[in-house]
Records
---
Amino acid sequence: MKDFSIKALIVCGVLFMLAKPKTAISQTPTDAIMMEKGQLCVAAIYGHDSWDKYWEGTYKRSNGNIGTLTRQSVTGMFSLGITDRINVLGSLPWMKTSASAGQMQGVQGIQDWGVWLKARAIDFKLGPGTLGFYPVLGLTGPASNYAVDYLPFSLGLGVVEASGRGIAIYEFDMGLYVRANAAYHVRSNTTIERDYYYIPGSGGVYSNKVDMPNVSSFGATLGALLLKNNLKVEATYEGMNTLGGADIRLHDMPFPSNNMDMTRANFNLQYYIPFSNGHVLSVIAGGTHVLTGRNMGQSTAFMGGLTYQFGVFGNKNNAKQ
Amino acid sequence: MKKIYFLVLLAFVALAIFQACEKDLPTNLEFTAYTYASLDEDGGNWKPILLDSATVIGIPAPEAASSATYQTELADLKAASANLNDDQKKAVAYWSGDGLVRWNEVARELAAKYNLPPPPKTDGTYGAPDAANPSNIPNFPFAHPPYACRMFAYWGTAQFDALIAAWHYKYEYNRPAAYKTDTSISTHLPQNDLPGYPSDGAVVAAVSKRILSAMFPLEKAYIEELATEHLNSLQWAGVSTESDIVWGDSLGRGVAGKFLARAGSDGMKAAQTPKPISDSLRVAAKAKWGWQWDNLESPARPVGITPFFGRVKTWCIPSVEAVRPPVPPAPGSAEFLVAAEELKKISSGLNEEQRKIANFWADGPSTYTPPGHWNRFACDEIVSHKLSPIRAARVLAYMNMAIMDAGISCWDTKYYYHYARPIQAIAGFKTILGTPNFPAYTSGHSTFSAAGATVLGHFFPEGTAKFDRWAKEAGESRIYGGIHFRFDSEMGNTQGIACGNYTIDIAKADGGE
């Protein structure tokens, strides 16, 4: 059980390392780590994300009126073990955007709240390791009245989004693991601050509501627990695919319902420092780079943060066992 | 464990319901065909805008209602409207007979589609749309506000003159509508006592087809398809026989031709000047006023939008000088500093209400432009007042003439004073709206909107306060958006009202009051 207990500490993981505005993937827990009952993990993470090239449809270009677009964020998160098999997670990012060139004003503020329920539905020994399956249900929505139709500066897309994700993981007893996840994100209409807009290939719409296409996302991870399980190292290939929406036309402005697709590579580390009282501090760091994209910036992002885990009910010294 | 699966299932059912509950978003004004508040029987006597008289374009007297030819037409119409499939029903409901509001929406949609500034090339230069080769990149046209206001003006005035001619022939020949002669024809639109020959719907479709195809040459096929559906819908609806349609179409095409001839020589071809001329305007402004506007985009655009639009032929104002505002406050002057301070203060503490106003009225790239916004308002009024097509066209003709005159006089002012935008005049100033590629003073949106509001207030007096409030808010929106000084907007408002009043003077004398 010792091994499992330590893994239980790792709940804070890198769930939000990819915290990224506008992408359905952004705040969705994609790992397979569970808090034990009564354990609470809180985290604060800083992210820095920038690009100087973007895809207008599939045409990759730069823009002298943007230069480099930078988005910085600070995200507060929590994860709580309701039971050993069911966890609830939440997040709330604050962010700030700015451009290095041109005269457009950047914005800052609170983006979208997110809440997830994650369950350890199945896990059993199989060969030299353990196979597990974890369904995750998520709900996100705007936490402030930010302007949605102000891409690429907008804080987010202003949608209420419900997602269902399946995570499968195979963990070798030696500490190596492979994990895959896939999700479907159902998005509500979003609201913009004008009541007419033109969708290329479709026509004019006389409403301040915008029909937002749904999104699918996936990820594949290779990870390892090193240094007596105190260090977690992960490399991930992941992507999102907007299931509909128009391309940005040549030199047009982006629009919230654009067909935004991308794949990216992600690498991250998490180092755990357990205390004698059973609490655990961890330091996380990571980076991600967009490989392919459509109607999005080719961003390179770095993040770093701290997590802190402690018992709030049940057996408060659980982690020590 | 079973609970978890149940929860997951429940969640997905909830999601499906959640999404199914969202309504389809409207792609046009939702209304059902109405009975006209008045048939405007004397419309054939109203004074046309461009035509010397209602009979400049002739159409022959129709076959008598009792003739064998017409009886065959009636039988065909009866067959056409007897059993409609769903698509035909939809087309009838959409075009709702005269189709004037629908064609205005088509014009707005095309304006939005073509309202895209030329992109920079990889070598940092910009291509220019070429009317002779419209499919070159960038496509012709770039439907910026001057282009759009002119398009709406020709479309609206041609409709008005063509419908005056149509009304003239309707009452001159006085052939009753098909469904009056043969009451067994099933109709799917409200019946009325207008004589059926020529068909007003066919007139509207023909004018729209010719004007819009000339303004948006790459859309010919799309426009043709719409026009065909519109004409078919008149038969499916059981309202127009073949000769009603054929001669309505002929009349509409003939009248539109007169307007296109005017458009061909109104000076628009020279409005987008070459760089040396545009530079000479800048040099002249610097010499005369001590300042000049510069484009700050990267790469910089060599020529602003239509420097010579101020020389395009006007409709109602005697000259651009008659409505040209006084010299704006010199940069650095006390009055300028007050305006600049106001912008800085607004920009640093922009509240949500101000942001919403800026965005609501932005009417920037990929939108129907400020003139399109006012055409929308006009159509809302037309439908709520149940106007006949000739009276509706009268509103659209005068409003769009005033808006185009406002555009011409505003553009004259812009390049005459060549005044800097806030991003140029205030160091480090940033905006939430993109700064357009032409000088600041006076604000185009303020001028367009005030002209539109003034004319709409004349035709719909109970709405005067609302229209004026909208026009002022449109002007205010440019200040919140950071692209205009207060004096740009306030002077634009005054200038637009002046243009609107000249237009109203002409409307008052056309016999249609």
---
Amino acid sequence: MRPFAKALAIGALSAALMAPTGAFAADSSDPIIIPTHNWSSQIVMSHVVGKLFEKMGNSVEYVSTDSQAVYEAVRLGDVHLEVEVWEGAFGVAFNEALKKGGLHDAGDHDAVTREEWWYPAYVEEKCPGLPDWEALNKCAEMFATPETGSKGRFLGGPVDWLKHDAERVEALGMDFKVVNAGSASALWAELDAAKRRNQPIVLFNWTPNFIEAIHEGKFIEFPAYFEGCKDDPSGGPNPNATYDCGNPANGYLKKAAWDGMKDKWPAAYQALLNISFTNAQIAEMAKLVDIDELEPEEAAEAWLEDNEDTWKPWIAHGV
Amino acid sequence: MTDAAIPAPAIATPQRDQRIGQMIVVAAVLLAAAKVALPDGLIRPPDWFVLPFADWINWTFAFLKDDLGLIYLTRAFADGVEWLIDITANLLYGKNRWPRIGPIPWTVIAVTAGVVGYALGGWRLALLSGGTFVWIAVMGQWEWAMETMSVIVVAVPLAVALGLVMGLLAWRYPRFEAVLNPVLNIAQSLPHFAYMIPVVVFIGLGPKAGAIVTIIFATPPMIRMTVLGLKKVPPEVIESGQMCGSTRWQLLRHARVPTARTEILVGVNQVIMQSLAMVVLASFIGMPGLGEKLLQLLQALRMGRSIEIGITIVLLAITLDRCSKAWAYRQPVHFERGTPWWVRNKLLLIWLALIAVAFTLAAFIPEAHEIKRRQAFTLSKQFDAGVDWMLVLLDPITLALRSFLIVWILVPLQNAYQWLPFAAVLTFLAGIGWMIGGARSALVCLAYAGLIAMSGWWDRAMITAYMITFAVIISMMIGLPLGVWASRSEGRAKIALLICDTAQTFPSFIYLIPVVMLFGVNDVAAIGAVIVFGMVPMCRYTIEGLRGVPPELIEAADMSGATRRQKLWTVKLPLALPTIMVGINQTVMFSLFMVIIAAFIGTRDLGQEMQRALSATDVGKGLVLGLCVAFMGLMVDHLAMRWSADRKKALGID
């Protein structure tokens, strides 16, 4: 090659490398750090995403973290993304971190999430008219426990999930008292024990969730959620109170990314934007671990093997 | 442990103090009785009394972190720690980091553990330590356990070194000790979650944060034991050192530290135990391994698997405890001059031969290198069946017990605590303090309780106090008789102490699930979990107290024809009471730690707020709440230690 052409080629090449589109720029060789939490679908999904990044030639590491504190870590770049941002559970923490800066919304999954009062199937025979909330309220006494007296007990999630159940009970004038469990494990332990005793129970639950595979049940149908229900008293069945509605029946499930990810690992970042799971896929991932007893890494392998058509297009630009 | 800082007054006027104290207590009762007539400011801390400590702390932290740039320093330190963890992580489970030669086959590590056990304590210890690692490998937990170990192997030496240096400084400079002591007191009574929040802020998440939180938690006992050991060195040793013309450094290196060897090694033992106690909690901020796995499994209610991990943690703890204790009490062996080197280093040679065999095996048989999860053995089905059986058996009893306790005891008790005017509580505590330790103790109690009132968390603190009160009473009702029963013979005592060790190191999160299944999400479940943990020190110290009664006194009682009952009630128990009091004190401390963890069941006390602070990474709030808990503990600690010291003096023991 003549010197001139060579220079031109190098110039073109480096221009391509520096191209702002980033599509052709190489990803950094530093590991991408993915946080995992203590529920199986998130761990498997993190490993699926991690393995996709590895297929693209990146190195990946996982750290286990608290699911609320993680947004602070993403913001500071200690971990680089989050694959499951639930509207209901983590919307507040996510928005707060968003306001402080350092992380951003990396798109929604196809999956919709719902978090609502829920009861196991056998309760339906005992309390006719379910899943309607007024029917539930009529059998409130059935759900009473020693600590709630004659009122029914609703077993809520941990207080830091900020579900405003007590406000809803108040606004809708229900004969219920909210008792907050301290962790998801405590919720499932109670559900398990209640089923054993064939005792009526109504508790906080969400979908997609592994528990659906073990216990059948339904969400309570509250007055539908509408924009402004949480701030404006005038809407809803009670004209004088806020929170007189259920939770959104189709909440978002987002991905979040550290601001620096885009420049440091452009190809992986693009893949992250493309990635989108459905409810069925998420339930499948949870099932692989919680029912089939695979390890999360194995479950991720298995899922990738069975769903090649799904993930191939996500990383097509990078390989 | 606090009393090192608070010297007992030279002249005790117990009679007068008693009377003044009683009068103050009566005043407190009158205050409570006159509640309707009291101004609001005496019922609940008035607004002007509550100070925004949390804001001040947050402001200070922000200043330290951003304006002074402390965060760069802490992050740099953390990076250093991470570099070390990467090395051990590579060696132990083959993480892709320098030096990239791991993972070491499990057989090699198990053989090494066995030989170390043999060297320290003969065949039994060899069997225990080798067996532990075989269990881990066979149960398919190798990688998780090595992830845990990779952090502990780094954290323990760092904690020991830090503790040793701080201990030396404290021993050398009394002024430093005077500053250090209260800090240590608080550090040792602060709930774990409280200092996890600043660690997240300054260090971040991941194994390094896990290591650093473990170091912070494990160092205080090391400092204390070092100081204790150095102070106990007899002057004769120093004099003989001086006569040999040693320099100050030589004196320290060859006379003081070796003489204090036993205490220092007991400190090392404490560091190891504390590190293992942190395995599960540290996984909240990114410590990998057994703890992380355990929380995941519990989340999916897989009890059997969780119990397997619990057993591994207990086995590791007991192995490391027994080995380090054997090391502490073993005196150095000296060989005769002219012993050939292969006799002197016999064990080393045997070890080399054994690991050579293990490496060879691992090279040819993959199972000797790594046992895959799929090939592993599991007992989870059996454990699950066992838990189910227990639940079915206990369920009718607990269901009845639950409503009885809630309706007749807990709700009234909680209401009573909440009803009390805060001024009456403060007066009452001052009175108790005066009765036990005079004006000084009254002031100490008032200061601690006053600070809690000023923090603005009075109501929450009273809920914690009510749970602790009830839990401690029940722990005593179970632990004391158990201890008395176990102290009757050497054999029983050994078994009981082993059970105590197990209960203490078994990860408490595992109890939470069956407790919730039996009692439901309420205070009974939370208190139940606290009791399981809290009765351990009660039982342990009762055994130690009763077995520590001088045999001459028992003989004397025998000779005067005392029956077994008389001996117990009039000789042994009174003499053991100071030690038992230390046990009660420890029970309070353990219960305070556990009540915070019981927030994961669902409580409405300080623990619940602590959980919120952790998820919001609110340093100020977390520390204020933590300090409230710590102050409660320190107040009880002060009173119990004071009482026990006076009592010992009066009995002429110790």
